[in-house]
Structures are given as structure tokens and as C-alpha cells.
Design goal:
By secondary structure, the protein is α+β, with helices and mostly antiparallel strands. Helices cover about 20% and strands about 25% of the residues. It contains seven helices and 15 strands. It has a seven-stranded antiparallel β-sheet. Helix 2 packs antiparallel against helix 6. It starts with 7 loop residues before the first helix and ends in a 23-residue tail after the last strand. The relative contact order is 0.23. It binds fe (ii) ion (FE2). The site of fe (ii) ion has 3 residues, from loops.
């Protein structure tokens, strides 16, 4: 039975390198259900309503001036690729292939994603990781569409979702297509999880400012030769330490690289920063992964 799986060999890799790839974690039926949900959401979405919202990973200047992004933590929100939208918000390609991501509460609001997030297998993995009180803080679908799926610069996830100590954050990254070096798989600096975040992405404490966030500190220039590729087959789970440095290249191939990804914070061992851009709400109160009984 899935819940009795022993993940010890992968957890050893995770503790050594700051990441690991666990194959065959999510089955085809769940993948099909997630893709069908996304097809429905995109079909229902009117691009004229949302296409002015483009997403630039790691917000190069650290500044968001857009309340749509800032209030997306408990909703289904749509973000487009910069290369797919003209200066007036008009789409330059068909809406399905123009999206960057949908977030940030898919794993809480949509059953197909909730089933995977709160599955017994996921709970068993979290218990073997020693998580005491894992809370779902964010969940999203990333398209990485052919030819325009943009590069993600080197970063530590704990820059954006800071905890004290910063080891309290974990990323879960599930490719719904084979993620390869051609279509934008992740690259990691093994062992870099031992260094706390070099920068912090926080809410701007100045209520008068039009800049809703700030990037405090700097992101170092990491040499490419320090990174190793982590190709991951469809249905695998890439487990990501909150401090490990990672990146991905632009998808210049003709194949899509769709991913479902979410982040947990272990409230049993760390405190979630009130300065983070993303905060719990009544609609999405950062649910405990162990309290849901889905499957
Ligand atoms: Fe990341």
C-alpha cells in the first residue's frame, strides 16, 4: 500500500543535497484529473479580464505594485507570460499557451489538486521527514509553455516564504510531463541548503508606497558549473529544501513542461514570518496536511 512506502533512500539524498527526485509518486489518474481541472479553468477564463497580469519570476526588482498578485494567496488567479502579451494587455497567442501559472490556492480549492496534496502517500512522506505540523501555504500550476516558458533565475524559496529558522520551508514539485534538460527541468547547487537565504522578499511596511513589496539583500551570481540538472519523469516528486539554490532555463523546445507545485511550512519547528507577502486568510487558513483525510 502506498502509505507504507519507505522513502529512506530518497530522504538520505535530500538531506545530503537539499533535493531529491522520487519517481512514480503520483499516478496517471491523478495527473489526468489535474490536467482536466486546468483545462476547465482555462476554458472558463476570459483572457481580457486577466491578461494585464504577467508574471516575472523572482520579481527582478523585488517590487510588486499589483494587488491582484498580493491577494492571490487564497484564490485561483491567472498570470501570463510577458512574451505572450502586448503593451496593451492583448494576447499574442492562444490563451492556453500564453499562461505562466495559476495560483496560489489550487491545492486547497480544487479537488483534483487537494487529493494529491493531502494524499496518504504525501502524509506518509511528511511523517518520514519528521514534519510535526506541516501547513500548506501556497500551491500553483506552472505551464512552462513551449518556446516562451521563461527562465527562472537562481533563487532560494526561503527568500519568498521566510521562516525562523529558515529550514522550516519545503517545496514539492510534481511534473505532469517529463521534465528534461530540453524543456526546462530544475537545476540545483547540491549542498547549498546549508546557507540561509541571502535576501528577503517582504511586504512593504510603508502603507503610502505604491510598491507593495521589497527585496532586501541581494541574490549572488552563481556560476552555471555549480548546478546539476535534475530531470524528472512525469509523476515523480521533486522534494526541495527551502534554502537550496535552484533555477530553470527557458523552455525553447516544442514540448510543454507542466508542473503542480506547493510549499509546506512546519509550524511545529519554525515560525512563519508576518513580513512575507503571503499571509493566511479565512478562506485559506494554511491548513494542516495531517488533518485532511482525502484518500
Ligand atoms: Fe523555486
Amino acid at each position: 500500500m502506498a502509505a507504507k512506502m519507505n522513502f529512506a533512500v530518497y530522504l538520505q539524498q535530500f538531506h545530503e543535497n537539499g533535493y531529491t527526485v522520487i519517481p512514480n509518486f503520483v499516478g496517471d489518474a491523478d495527473i489526468d484529473a489535474m490536467k482536466a481541472t486546468i483545462a476547465r479553468l482555462v476554458d472558463q477564463m476570459d483572457p481580457h479580464e486577466y491578461s494585464q497580469h504577467v508574471f516575472r519570476p523572482a520579481a527582478k526588482d523585488g517590487k510588486h505594485r499589483d494587488d491582484y498578485f498580493m491577494s492571490s494567496g487564497d484564490k485561483i488567479c491567472y498570470f501570463f507570460e510577458p512574451d505572450a502579451v502586448d503593451e496593451h494587455g492583448g494576447l499574442l497567442r492562444e490563451k492556453r499557451s500564453a499562461l505562466n501559472k495559476i495560483g496560489h490556492a489550487l491545492g486547497w480549492l480544487e479537488p483534483a489538486f487537494k487529493n494529491v496534496t493531502f494524499s496518504q502517500k504525501m502524509q506518509a512522506l511528511c511523517r518520514q521527514l519528521g514534519l510535526v505540523d506541516p501547513r500548506l501555504v501556497q500551491s500553483m500550476y506552472i505551464f512552462k509553455n513551449p518556446e516562451i516558458g521563461q527562465e527562472v533565475l537562481p533563487h532560494q524559496d526561503s527568500t519568498f516564504l521566510y521562516t525562523d529558522p529558515p529550514s522550516g520551508l519545503l517545496g514539492f514539485w510534481i511534473p505532469l510531463d517529463d521534465a528534461t534538460t530540453d524543456n526546462g527541468c530544475l537545476y540545483f547547487i547540491p549542498g547549498s541548503q546549508h546557507v540561509p537565504p541571502t535576501s528577503r522578499f517582504v511586504r512593504n511596511p510603508d502603507p503610502q508606497s505604491t510598491e507593495l513589496t521589497q527585496l532586501i539583500g541581494s541574490q549572488p551570481d552563481y556560476a552555471w558549473d555549480r548546478f546539476e540538472a535534475a530531470p524528472a519523469p512525469k509523476g515523480s516528486l521533486v522534494l526541495i529544501h527551502g534554502n537550496v539554490v535552484h533555477r530553470s532555463k527557458k523552455n525553447t523546445s516544442h514540448s510543454q513542461r507542466n508542473v503542480y507545485t506547493f510549499h509546506l511550512v512546519d509550524y511545529g519547528k519554525s515560525a512563519y514570518s508576518a513580513q512575507n507577502w503571503l499571509q493566511p486568510t479565512t478562506e485559506c487558513p494554511f491548513p494542516n496536511l495531517y488533518n485532511e483525510r482525502i484518500i
